[in-house]
Specification:
The complex is a heterodimer of chains A (about 230) and B (about 325).
Chain A: E1 6-11, E2 14-15, E3 26-27, H1 34-44, E4 50-59, E5 65-73, H2 79-88, E6 96-97, E7 102-111, E8 114-123, H3 133-146, E9 163-167, E10 191-200, E11 209-217, E12 220-222
Chain B: E1 8-19, E2 23-24, E3 30-31, E4 39-42, H1 44-59, E5 69-70, H2 75-86, H3 104-117, H4 119-124, E6 125-127, E7 136-138, E8 141-143, E9 146-151, E10 155-161, H5 167-176, E11 187-205, H6 207-213, H7 217-229, E12 241-252, H8 261-265, E13 268-274, E14 277-279, E15 297-301, E16 310-314
Antiparallel strand pairs in B: 1-11, 1-12, 2-3, 4-9, 6-7, 8-11, 9-11, 10-11, 12-16, 13-14, 13-15
Helix pairs in contact in B: 1-7
The chains are: A alpha+beta (about 230), B alpha+beta (about 325).
Pfam family, one (chain B): Cas_Cas7
Organism (chain B): Tropicimonas sediminicola
InterPro entries (chain B): Cas7_Csh2/Csh2, CRISPR-assoc_prot_Cas7/Csd2
Chain lengths: ~230, ~325
């Protein structure tokens, strides 16, 4: 771990890192995705001048699932209805009626997850002359140490909030109890988690999803760097 | 309305007696349970629904306090439909097939319009199919699942109705029994109740997101009012008696906050009261009678050594 990296311990009661192929009745990935980890860091500190690069995700707890079914709404707000209401100056008919638009959806969520995110950041082309890696690193460390955030970070979806604590440089990682160190987390032999979402390319047209082959080795998920051959389009 | 400038975190403590706080559609409407611990759950969306319903009741469609995700049909809407049916020459709005905002500017205008008019969009956000960055409005208020402080024991109660739904059902009843005439047209049903459960939910209010949606101090007051009163206006056969028991708000001085939320939440401690003495809730507590009322619990709030810039507001 270089001096310019950060480590953040995150945990929660539940987590839902939705697999893109199973998102009507949502099923979580076994482990936090790099894009979810990036979202957590951005909830604490982000500026257009920087870009977070997730390096490693440590899994601290066994992977356990639970199913939750909820009543959800089937529709999104329609832009055309809103602009019509704006023109008319009248809100009639703009509401969504939940009872007439019910969808019951199950979600397979992770229970009691805990991770350590290891990440660094890069400067983007929007960085100004006053932006430097050191400045933003300090800002992040200061905020994370004090528990400050832009908004409370979450584990996949907003109802599953994340507690977070900075692991200061030189400090050991939160201990993993020996009974957690099973083959499920890749102790003994690496465990193949299959193709996992790496991130979404927001800059490219159509916003394509990028994937990588995820492997858990002794509880650690190595994340390939941006632009590497391991990131699949 | 100027937006909120300080971050808030809150703990909502509510209880249920002889009722079902939140049915599980996966389990035949049994109260929600965490299968690993048997602790009861109430989903975030269930609580948000009650907040919306309360605001709709309290503000009654006052300008700026409409509710976007509404429950049930609105009577006025039905009246309007009757009018439009009678006067078809009025402006026909349904002609446009598909419309997306032309540019970012229009998307922002649409978003601002929704935030200004609808309390729930301003508070919880909404997904708008604007086609630009998915047009999501993230609301400042984020709530978690409420979980009971001890395992709950759902009880199934069978009830009867002295009437049949239809002719066929009545006939079936007549064939079944000959000795009891009363049983002829009787239907049986089930209710699931939790004898008693004390639940805790955590909530977060981001001042930075409030800036974006225009969620102001007045909205915050209304939200807290809703959290304290929402169960009073959600009485039904299924719910039993639900009451907000405590609402503890941690107010940070700054927008980004002055302390980690989990550290603040740890200051709220719930113990069982046994013979007037607080006992930690652990495995040994099983030897005592189960909790059946709020006074079987002691809620303590640690106010010592508060981090700088954090203020505790106890609203109940």
């Amino acid at each position: 771990m270089s001096l310019l990296s950060i480590r953040l311990h995150v945990w929660g009661r539940y987590a839902l890192f939705t697999r893109p192929e199973l998102k009507v009745e949502r099923v979580s990935y076994d482990v936090m995705t790099p894009s979810a980890a990036r979202g957590i860091l951005e909830a604490i500190h982000w500026k257009p001048a920087i870009r977070w690069v997730i390096q490693r995700i440590h899994v601290l707890q066994p992977i356990r699932f639970q199913s939750i079914r909820r009543n959800e709404v089937g529709h999104k707000a329609s832009a055309s209805n809103i602009s019509r209401a704006m023109k008319r100056g009248d809100l009639a008919g703009l509401q969504l009626l939940v009872d007439e638009d019910r969808q019951q959806r199950a979600a397979s969520v992770l229970t009691n997850p805990a991770y350590v995110i290891e990440a660094r950041f890069e400067m983007t082309s929007r960085a100004g002359p006053t932006d430097s890696v050191g400045k933003h690193l300090d800002m992040f460390n200061r905020r994370a140490a004090r528990g400050q955030c832009f908004n409370q970070p979450c584990l996949g979806t907003r109802e599953f909030s994340a507690g977070f604590e900075l692991v200061k440089p030189g400090e050991p990682l939160p201990a993993r109890s020996p009974e957690v160190e099973t083959a499920e987390l890749g102790f003994g032999a690496p465990r193949d988690l299959g193709l996992m979402l790496w991130d979404i390319d927001h800059a490219a047209p159509g916003r394509p999803s990028l994937f990588f082959r995820a492997r858990l080795e002794s509880g650690i998920l190595e994340v390939p760097p941006p632009g590497s051959d391991e990131v699949l389009r | 309305m100027s937006a909120l400038t300080r971050r808030h975190d809150f703990v909502l403590i509510f209880d249920v007696s002889n009722g079902n706080p939140n049915g599980d559609p996966d389990a035949g409407n049994l109260p929600r349970l965490d299968p690993q611990t048997n602790h009861g759950l109430v989903s975030d969306v269930s609580l948000k629904r009650k907040i919306r319903n309360y605001v709709e009741l309290a503000k009654g469609g006052e300008a700026g306090f409409h509710i976007y995700v509404e429950e049930g049909a609105i009577l006025n809407e039905k009246h309007r439909q009757a009018y439009t049916a009678l006067r078809p020459d009025d402006e026909k709005a349904g002609a446009v097939k598909k419309l997306n905002p032309k540019d970012d500017r229009e998307a922002v205008a649409l978003r601002d319009f929704m935030c200004a008019n609808f309390f729930d969009v301003r508070t919880f956000g909404a997904v708008m199919s604007t086609g630009i960055n998915c047009g999501q409005v993230k609301g400042p208020v984020q709530m978690t699942f409420a979980s009971s402080v001890e395992p709950i024991l759902p009880v199934e109660i069978t009830v009867t109705r002295m009437a049949a739904t239809n002719e066929a059902e009545k006939k079936k009843g007549e064939e079944g029994s000959d000795e009891d005439a009363r049983a002829d047209n009787r239907t049986m049903g089930r209710k699931h109740i939790v004898p008693y459960g004390l639940y805790v939910a955590h909530g977060f209010i981001s001042a930075k997101f409030a800036e974006r949606t225009g969620f102001g101090e007045g909205d915050l007051e209304l939200l807290f009012e809703a959290l304290t009163n929402m169960f009073e206006h959600d009485r039904s056969a299924a719910r039993g008696e639900m009451t907000t028991r405590k609402l503890i708000v941690f107010r940070h001085e700054s927008a980004l906050g002055n302390a980690p939320a989990h550290k603040l939440f740890e200051r709220v401690r719930i113990d069982r009261s046994i013979g007037g003495e607080p006992h930690e809730i652990d495995d040994r507590i099983g030897n005592y009678a189960p909790a059946r009322k709020f006074s079987d619990y002691v809620v303590t709030l640690d106010r010592d050594d508060l981090p700088n810039g954090v203020e505790i507001v106890e609203l109940m």
